[in-house]
């Protein structure tokens, strides 16, 4: 196999490479390229393939005769090392530009897989242990050969060859072509390209229809009679501001996601398949399906087409290079919060070089992490500025107020105007405060104002949840929930918020871990009018905010319950699940009051238990920072199981009726199957699987011969308390290793769960809902027309 780097025997200035571990993490050491290959150090390289969609061909380059490896043979479109301090993307752009004279922005490059090449050539003097990031650039048509500017010392010619013919030549080990093992790891290049263009339109439409059918559409509305005329005017502005949260979240998911969204919307009416693509994209807000472990349901072949007339030399009669904007098949764990090729080791090395204040900022909620070396990636004319630049630490921090400046500016203006109209002083304070926060990046005061909101018109807007950051769980996504407060229901749930300190004092964990100053949590019950931003896939029925530990410590948290969403899910999903999965004898215990009451307790229990903790070494930290990417799933499991414990505790203290006992346990069991269907890549699904499997293993849940389940009332209380204690203790100790162990053991799709989900699929019980918001849609329609 060709080595990307065995290029020149003599270099004017020897290139330095970052030394990697065998697991591809940066060590913080860089060495001259010759030393790296002499010593067999692991390092990075890029392979870039240019693929022509219309002709199903790959571009090949003929290596120059002066090359010291594989001279004169046909090879990859472009390849090269990742220089020390460079990112993979910068290197891919650089090699394509230097060798072929093609200058493309970062959204043209699709990372399809990473290939580890381990070989020894040149009589044992050249050891190549190389992690190759393999990219594909998809053009609509072949690039005219006269449009290329070839680097004579590297490339002597280029040509296009069909994917099938090229693969056959490699399989036959044709001596004119650099050898690649097409039956080994590198076969993925050919498989991925061929598979995405082999689609059966009818089959694909049926697949998308099936995926969409897992959601039940439901219209959600609320009575506006309790709102003043001024509040109704403010509502229109708020819905417009909330719609901007969609735009920001779209960008937070992936940098080419906005162009994909716009393209799918434009194409939606061209065919039934195009309509299905757009409809399912709207559910997931990305090309990755939430209910299918984030498996891609679209490919770059479905993506937007862009024209770049200046990407190459001009050619008479040719309008220029047209390419597909790319996105990876595998959902990036760091979303668009971090550079896509940044690993945890690099982040930690950089973070440790910062001052204490900068460290706190780096792991804060409200910024993104970028590379100095990628500053000019989308400014083609400035590429030469970046190439070869080596920063001691390539990463730096960009606050949300700067990263999303244009969008946040528009939203802030709308919130300011809505605040001017609002009749409630607390709503006015919230909206003006949030407008200021969007511009200043300081959310503390506006989140306090949100907690103190006392208004018929209820608003939650801003960056809150961290589920999308699968790398660390640090970065918050933008979202919005707008509704009308249900005064009667809000008064009924006040009991739960008032009991938090009482519950904290009696939690099933060592007293040393308990807090003495838990603050009563306000709970607001609303009828949802509109949501946006990070509300993809399965819809939330409640939330407990803020997540900022400073506020949690100072003021506690506040909860919002979405009653009309809960009612829709109970009617359309939980009752049908119970009919299929719960034993006939216990089916009657599944009721809405129990379902809704446990949801309240779930949210309350986010506010108790360990948050700020003292580690064994005496250091102060937080559960979120210590558990990192494992925190979200374990926290959801904690809130769920401790919520169940709390209900029984309050019943025992005669604060809730004893008649609730059986119904709460059985309704919880039915809810297990509901949440697990969200998928085990999602925090709620992963946390629910943990609870179900633990309870099942310990006899609290019983499987019957007819494949229905029931609660063992004699065992369930003790097992719930045991699991609550285990999770709370892991959190209190900040024990990431034990968190990983319990999640790996129990957050799996066991056979009983598989059998239950199979039955639910056979009778086509919806997995979740797609809410429609007629009031908001009418407001946005008028806004668009204006």
UniProtKB/TrEMBL annotation:
Entry GO MF terms: dipeptidyl-peptidase activity; metal ion binding
Protein's UniProt keywords contain Transcription: no
Domain Nudix hydrolase as annotated: residue spans: 41-183
Keyword presence, tRNA-binding: no
Lineage: Eukaryota, Viridiplantae, Streptophyta, Embryophyta, Tracheophyta
Keyword annotations from UniProtKB, A to Z: Hydrolase, Metal-binding
PROSITE patterns listed in its UniProt record: NUDIX
InterPro entries: NUDIX_hydrolase-like_dom_sf (IPR015797), NUDIX_hydrolase_dom (IPR000086), Peptidase_M49 (IPR039461)
PANTHER family: DIPEPTIDYL PEPTIDASE III-RELATED, ZN-DEPENDENT HYDROLASE
Descriptive protein name: Nudix hydrolase 3 isoform X1
Pfam families: NUDIX, Peptidase_M49
Cellular component GO terms, alphabetical: cytoplasm
